Amino acid sequence: MAVLPLVLTLLYRLPAVPAPSTLMIRDAVTLQGYDRRWVPIDQMGTAIVHSVMMSEDGQFCAHRGVDWPALNAVIEDAMSGERTRGASTITMQTAKNLYLWHGRSMIRKGIEVPLSLYLDAVLPKRRIMEIYLNIAEWGPNIYGVEAAAQHHFGRSARELSSRQAALLAVALPNPLNRDPANPGQGLSRLAGTIEARANQAGAYVGCLR
User: Fold this and answer.
1) What are the angstrom distances between the C-alpha of 94 and each of 91, 151, 164, 177?
2) Which regions of the chain does DSSP assign to beta strands (E)?
3) Which residue of 10, 24, 92, 178 shows the fewest CB atoms closer than 10 Å?
4) What is the pLDDT of residue 80?
5) Is the pLDDT of residue 188 over 90?
6) Residues 6+ apart with CB under 8 A from 78
7) Secondary structure of 85-113 in the HEC alphabet?
């Protein structure tokens, strides 16, 4: 079991392999079914790619899988009894979605960190982002940006406006309770901030070109 992620990660280097997430496997095993339509990153359009990166992990191109300053700050907060904030990078979320269980757990986080370092060492940044955008959960039994774009906005990921892309991006931290097609005032404000950042991403997204 410990070796399986190491082997699968090598397999996932191949562009033709549509990697599944553990949640997708759960939905299939429990006969719930799911909607996921794999699309290559160059067919997604830049709006959603840049929006998700600027919303979830603005330093994605700079770190090597783990944002150590952010993670150390979370550990310090936990040690002092303060409420912790998220410090997961896109690489860490990809490792979790591919191989681990969901929910808060220090044990899971301890496994997630070395897996993320391995993912970053083995897979190109562009491939990590491509996998993440194809396995991220965007609602009950809805996975990947193409299925999310079709479900919420009735169009392909490539056809999303910058506003729609930003709304999908800010829904990711809580996809079961945030509706990008019917956002509240707070979600709309947050989407406006992410839309502006995505439009000026510049060098931040250099590793994805």
Assistant:
1) 5, 22, 23, 21
2) 35-36, 142-143
3) 10
4) 63
5) yes
6) 84
7) CCCCCHHHHHHHHHHCCCCCCHHHHHHHH
